[in-house]
Every structure is written in C-alpha cells, then in structure tokens.
Amino acid sequence: EPVLKLGLSGVSEADQPTFDLDSVEKQDSDADSFTSSSDESDSEEEDNDDHIIIAGPNHSGDILDDEYSSECDDENVSNTKNKGPTDSVDVREASTEDMLQISDFLETPATEPTSKKKGRLIGRVAKTVTASTVVTGKTVIKTLGKGTVKSTVSASRAVTMPMSSVVYNKTPKRHEPRGRGIGRRKRSHKSQMKSLGKTLKTIQGQGHLKGHATAGSLLFPDQCCRLVSSMLSQTSSNSSNPLLVNDAISALISACSAHDLAFLRGCSAELGVRPLLPVDPKSDIDCVVARCLYDGRWVEELCIFYTDARHLAFYAPLSKKPSLVVTLDEIEAARSLDDNETFPLPTHSSAAIDTTLKCHYIAFLTPSHRENLIAKLNGILTDETQSNTGLVQNGKGSEFEAYKMPLEAALTTSGMATKWEGVRTGKKSKQKKQRKVLNSRIMPFDLDPILSSSGDSQEEICLFVEGLLKRALSFSPDDSLDLNDTRFVDFLNETSRLRLLPLGELDLTSKQAFCVFVNLYHTLLQHSLLIAVDGLPSKRSVTAFKRCSCYEIGDDVFSLSELECLVIRGKLGRPVHARSPFVEPPKKSRSYLIYALTSSDYRVNFILNNGDISYPKKVPIYNPRLLEDQMDAASFNFLSAQVKIDAKKRSVFLPNVCNVYRSDFGGNDGLVCLQSCLRFLEEHDQLSVAALLDNGVVSIKFLKPSEMFHASLSEMSALV
Predict the structure, then answer these.
(1) Is there a contact between 340 and 267 (Cβ–Cβ < 8 Å)?
(2) How far is the CA of 451 from the CAs of 105, 404, 500, 635, in angstroms?
(3) Which string of b and e fits 383-410 if b means at least 16 CB within 10 Å?
(4) Angle at CA of residue 392, ends 391 and 393, nearest 5°
(5) Are 458 and 511 in contact (CB under 8 A)?
(6) How far apart are CA 512 and CA 505, in angstroms?
(7) Is the pTM here over 0.85, yes or no?
(8) pLDDT tens for residues 72-106?
(9) Of 88, 580, 628, 665, which one has the fewest beta carbons inside 10 Å?
C-alpha cells in the first residue's frame, strides 16, 4: 500500500513517521482546495508576522533572489525529466490534516545530533507545477531557492523531489519578494483615489457630465464631491422621468448608516475628550456639535462654554487640547439660521457665532441645545454688570490664549483647512504654499445673492464690483486702519458675496466683463496690501504674494497672477523674462484661460497697476461707458512719469513693462514701441522725441524694474 514518508535528517528510518493515504483518497476536494489556496495565501503574507522560509541545502541564510530561484527551478525541472520509471515515488495528494501534522512535527526539534547542517527534509506533494505556498492554518510555508518542489501530474500520480529546509522566523524585508513595504497601504489608497478619478474623468469625457469645471485645483475629496454632485443634478434634471429619479436619489440619501445614527450623539466620554478645564454642570454648557471648517466640510467636535472663564472651546475627538478657543471679547453676536434654505445640513439646527473677522458656524442635533447656547451667550453679552475676567481663572489664561484663531488665519485662512490645492512659489521650490483666501469671513449659504430677479445680469455685476473697489480704495494704513471698524467689517462681508458671483453670466467679449475683472484685480491688490501680515512684498516675496493672495469668485478661486496674466491678458503676449514685480502664474494654472478676455489692447500694460512705485498710486474705477477715456487717462498718468528723454545722449528711456511684454508692441522693434507710447506723452516731450528722430539715430533703453511697493492705493478722480 503506498505510504507517504518524510525523510528527516538524523532520524532512523524506523523512527520516521508514516501516514496512511487511504484517508487522503476520500478527501480529494480538500486536496484541491489545498493546492488552489496557494495564490490566496500570497495576498495574506503581508498581514502575517510569522513567515517561515523554505530554502535549499546550500543556503547560507540570506533570502535568495528571484533570478537565482528561477535558475534552481529550471535545474530541478530538468532533473525530474531525466528521472526513470524506477526513480518515481508512488505517492498521492496530501490533505490539509496531513500538512497540519507536518507543521507540528517540524516544530519539534530533532533529538539526535548530526554532523551535517541542522535541518529537516520534507517531501512535498503538489498537484500543479506553479504551486509555491501552502497555508496550513498555523504557519506559512514558502518554497524558495534550490530544491523547490516541481512535479508533473500523470494518471493521478505525482513525481516529487525531496528538499532540505532551513526555517527562519523573521519578517521578510522590503527588498525581498512579497516583502512588507512601508508604503504599501499608502500606494493602495492612492490607487483607489486614482481609479475613482479616472472613472469620473471617463464619465466627463464621454459627454455624460457637461458641468462647468473649476479652473482652480481642488483637493481630491472636494473634487470628487463636486463632480458627483454635478452628475446627480444633471441626472435629475435631464431625465425623462425626473420624479422617479429624484425619488431614487432621495431614497439613496435617506438611507442611514451606523455613522449617521451616531452623528452628534453622546458626550465627551463617547468622543474620548479630556478637557483642560473641568465642566461645571451648574453654570457651563457642553454638547456635541458639527463645526464648519470651510464650505463643504464639517467636523464633529465637543463644544464647551465656560461661564466663569468667558470663552468657548471646541475639542476634536480623542483630544486633550482644544482645536479652537473663542473668547467673549471677540464675539459680537450669536444667531440662529432657521430661515436659511441653503444650509447644507437641513435636518439639523444651525447657529452662527459672529466675531469681528470671522463667523463660526455650528450645527446641533436638536433645537434645544442650540437655544440654550445662544441664550447663554447673548445673555452674558448684554449684561453690562458682568465682570470681564478674561482668561485668567485657574491659571489657564496663557494656555488658552494659544488656541485662539490667529489674526492672519482669520484674515487670510492661512494655516487653516482649505479645499484648494497649494501653489508653487518658484521654479526651484518643490514645496507648495497654501492659497490665502481673503474673502472667507462669511460662508456662501449665509449671504445675500448679488443678482436680483429682474434686470441685466452684467450691469448688476458691474455696479456691485465698482462699489466694492470704491470701498477698498477708501481705506489707508496712514489713517490707522482699525480692524474693529464697522466699515472694514462691512467691506469683508461684501467681498464674501463674490463667492456667489455667477461667472457664467459674463460675456467675455464685452466691455462689462473687462471692467469687472480689472476692478476685481485692483480690489484684490488693495485688499492684499492693506492686510499684509508679513509686511509689504519685496523682491523675494513678491512671487508668493501674487500667487497666494486669492479671492473666491463664483465656484472658483483667482490669485493676482492668474487674474493679471491668464484672464485680463489672456489674448495678449507672454512675458519675455518676468522679473520682480512681474510674476507669471504656475504652469498648472493654464486652465484659467477658459476665463480669458478677448481684448488685445496694448494699453492693458499701462492700466494694470502692479503695486510697485513705478506705477501711480491712484487707480480709476472703470466703467463700460467711460472705458476708452479712462484707459487713455491711466496710460497718460503712467507714461508721463515713466518715459525719460536724454537729448545729449540721444536716448529715450521707456518703462520696464514695454521690455517684459515687448510682443504687445511689435516684437523686438523698439521704435514701434516708442511710437505706441508717444501719443500718451506731453506735447513738449512729443516734440523732443520727434526732433531726435529727424536728426539721426535714437537709442531706446528700458528703465530698471522697481523693487519697492506702495502701502496702499487710492481712487483717481472720475472723468466727467
């Protein structure tokens, strides 16, 4: 009767264990599952810390590489082919129970010493040639190196070769085959993100998604959410049976998961929060809320209002320190948002806590929690007899002061969570800097729309932007700009309304669109100069200043460099060599050309103020009816101060912008550029240049760029 024998080094043949194979014949299905489980075990090796490696007899202890293993495999296959009929072993397939007994036997050390290398001989029966891994339920046996089992199947019989084994109980290193790499999980997560992104791009490329894409680069989660939202909106609106589609989408959205049922429920114990200060149940209020980080992202936090310490503290789950502290000195009012139909969490009770520079939005599970907090806050704010103790109680004053929102973060969202991808600030700089969105005081769902139900859309947008620029030019650092001034707070609120500006209503070929974007550019420049937390831009910082200072307009985001180079100068030439104060946008911002204006007037180079002292401090507020006269007046003010004439040296000095954007003035021909500027000069300067041209050759040179900037801009007197 055929018997499976295990050859063990140093053990006599009589002591070697034998296994009756009659039971094996009855478990063919187990054997099939045993041999087919090899491929599945490969995927499980990553999560198994105990790896047992089977190596050849001449193995010195290092893991063999794939090339040497393949050479050994070829040698073993050739050896099996040279075997005669007498060399074959009459064996059958081994079941899973037999392999468990083998693994248990391998764990028992040999009792008799031997002069050869300590090891064990194991005969492996394989039904297929490619089987390389066996999962026994306790250990993983991986056959590598010389002596790997190779077999051929013929009439339910297999030809096997014995091999010696050296067992190493260590985790495979990263360079080893199927080794556990540090970044393996990250790569799999990225692959899922790429797969989702490719799927959405495929749907969009096939014409199923025709929504307007943003030119600004969103982070991946926000980009996917926006695309999926557009897909659902178009599906519900373009379907032949919209009611059925809307019902199906509503049923999908209304399905509650385990996370939905646990959202905003519990207390500090459920969130794992350990506050810095103990909560007094008699005077303090604590509840779980959802706080809005930016439009589209809410985080679940524990909100605690300390009556004696006079501040609000928000704690993230599993935290010991607050993520944000808002003092009563900062709070102006607390209000509910019941009547707001555009609130993104319609099934929850919402409230807004207004501070001077930022509005914080929170959502509650029940109206009672919201009413208790609002009543408590407004009661203390209106109580004039309440003593202003600040954050000094219990010696925690300086510690809580560190968790207040910094001034720069409140004004520019710097260091806060954002949905926009960072931008590069230099050719050699690999690190990206965060965009500074200056109009983020109020969220879009808490703003009044710009357009009315009746009237010309472009005309209303023009009037709104003109008024916005007029407000911006009314401020000056010389007047000791007070951030608590109600005029400045109103200006921040009006800039926040730009997030509702419908860019699709603008005709990019019209004068209205030209005036809107030029006025928006000067508004953003004035706003950036007024709140320059790091100081005025310099030669080193001007690139970051113009690429990171942004406004959210509509559903998109625009920086100073993107508005100047890709929108207003969209159809004009590119700079020859852009140096400070001229800054090109990053290469990834080329998508902003979808907003490019069709104007190709070279006077754009004279009316766009870069903020440096080579340009005049006064800026006009452009109006479509007075556009031509205003452009001539701005060009005259700029060139009359920049063009220099040296009659003795027969030289004419032109502004540096004519050299940077020389393609707008006829390429490298300086004479054509001079003729373009000549009509905007004073009469005596025109006569001087004409005399030089009549008497002979004129040397045309360009002034050096300025490296100093204005502290602010002011309004040019209107043309009548």
Answers:
(1) no
(2) 83, 36, 9, 33
(3) eeeeeeeebeeeeeeeebeebbbeeebb
(4) 105
(5) no
(6) 11
(7) no
(8) 444 444 444 444 444 434 444 445 555 555 455 44
(9) 628
